[in-house]
């Protein structure tokens, strides 16, 4: 078989008829599970390499959606399974880190069982020869890295929302038994069609077998807690910094000195101080147990709830309220008409004439 897979949900014990094209089988089955909300009910699927090749136009460079493919041996492509299904994201491992194809299947299937609104859904996998592939929902609105480091137009309220959403996803993964995540960074945070931040599912299927070789009592710069701290610093500064350099970058700094200048002062120092304190704790965390708990999620939820309206809109709203308040005051206490200079002169002459008559 050469390691090739069958594009059919694994729950389906009945193989497709040999005379039926595999892509047709995929489309018919997918039609049963696809709805307007995306691949909500999609069963875990073992894809055929030929289907993924067609979907990605032979893995064309024009379909690459990885933002730093030159820095990684693994590349993510956009793929179109069929016109009625929409796009998917296909991660291609150039060197499969699993000695057995079944290991990739087991890891991928475990990750696919996770279902959370802040976690991108893993749809399936493919293993062919020395290559492995993961297939996930396609997120249309870029990554946190692109928005922060390149577009540079993210408001403070949105940054708080991102921190809250990713903490939600990581807490869910941890409580579900996924305490590790491969290379967590701003590139792992994606935005869905509603512009909500979601955590990529690809990092849950890890390439690193010995993820935390360091003894307890030392900081692991690859841990989920440490990497979440680096994302929080990214949100504060708007800068892309190597993870190992982040502690030095913030050490002894006042939060106002760290803030992204593109915010133009439109942020709450009190809220930013809370984020910086949490980031510092994450970057110094030595326990293998994750710091990202429901208490941390609750703290971030409270922060973003206070700032639902973007900062610039708050300023504009305040101006409108000031104008409305001034208008109401004018209606209650009409201003007296200011006399003209001619009127004042006539009043002075009349007053002088009256004084002469009295004398």
From TrEMBL:
It comes from the Eukaryota. This is Serine/threonine-protein kinase BSK. The keyword Kinase applies. It is an enzyme of class 2 (transferase). It is a lipid-anchor. It catalyses: L-threonyl-[protein] + ATP = O-phospho-L-threonyl-[protein] + ADP + H(+); L-seryl-[protein] + ATP = O-phospho-L-seryl-[protein] + ADP + H(+). Residues 62-344 form the Protein kinase domain. Its main location: membrane. Its EC number is 2.7.11.1. It is found in: Cell membrane. Residues 322-331 have a biased composition (Polar residues). Keywords: ATP-binding, Brassinosteroid signaling pathway, Cell membrane, Kinase, Lipoprotein, Membrane, Myristate, Nucleotide-binding, Serine/threonine-protein kinase, Transferase. SUPFAM superfamilies: Protein kinase-like (PK-like). It comes from Camelina sativa. Interacts with BRI1. Residues 1-31, 320-359 are annotated as: Disordered. Serine/threonine kinase that acts as positive regulator of brassinosteroid (BR) signaling downstream of the receptor kinase BRI1. Belongs to the protein kinase superfamily. Ser/Thr protein kinase family.
């Amino acid at each position: 078989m050469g390691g090739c897979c069958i594009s059919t949900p694994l729950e389906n014990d009945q193989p497709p008829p040999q005379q039926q094209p595999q892509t047709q089988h995929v489309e018919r089955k997918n039609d049963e599970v696809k709805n307007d909300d995306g691949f909500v009910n999609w069963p875990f699927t073992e894809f055929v390499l030929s289907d993924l090749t067609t979907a990605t136009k032979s893995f064309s460079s024009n379909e690459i959606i990885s933002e730093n493919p030159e820095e990684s041996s693994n590349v993510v492509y956009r793929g179109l399974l069929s016109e009625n299904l929409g796009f998917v994201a296909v991660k291609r491992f150039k060197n499969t880190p699993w000695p057995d194809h079944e290991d990739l299947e087991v890891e991928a299937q475990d990750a696919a069982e996770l279902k959370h609104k802040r976690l991108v859904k893993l749809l399936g996998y493919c293993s062919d020869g020395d290559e492995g592939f993961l297939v996930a929902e396609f997120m249309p609105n870029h990554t946190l890295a692109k928005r922060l480091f390149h577009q540079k137009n993210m408001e403070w309220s949105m940054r708080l929302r991102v921190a809250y959403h990713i903490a939600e996803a990581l807490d869910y993964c941890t409580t579900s038994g996924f305490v590790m995540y491969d290379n967590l960074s701003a590139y792992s945070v994606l935005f869905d069609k509603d512009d909500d931040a979601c955590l990529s599912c690809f990092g849950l299927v890890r390439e690193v077998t010995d993820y935390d070789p360091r003894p307890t009592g030392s900081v692991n710069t690859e841990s989920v807690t440490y990497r979440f701290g680096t994302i929080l610093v990214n949100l504060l500064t708007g800068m892309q910094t190597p993870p190992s350099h982040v502690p030095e970058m913030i050490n002894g700094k006042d939060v106002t000195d760290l803030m992204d200048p593109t915010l133009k002062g439109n942020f709450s120092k009190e809220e930013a101080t809370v984020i910086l304190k949490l980031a510092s704790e994450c970057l110094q965390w030595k326990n293998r147990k994750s710091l990202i708990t429901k208490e941390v999620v609750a703290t971030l939820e409270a922060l973003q709830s206070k700032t639902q309206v973007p900062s610039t809109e708050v300023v504009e709203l305040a101006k409108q309220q000031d104008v409305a308040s001034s208008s109401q005051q004018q209606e209650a206490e009409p201003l007296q008409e200011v006399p003209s200079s001619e009127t004042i002169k006539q009043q002075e002459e009349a007053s002088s004439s009256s004084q002469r008559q009295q004398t």
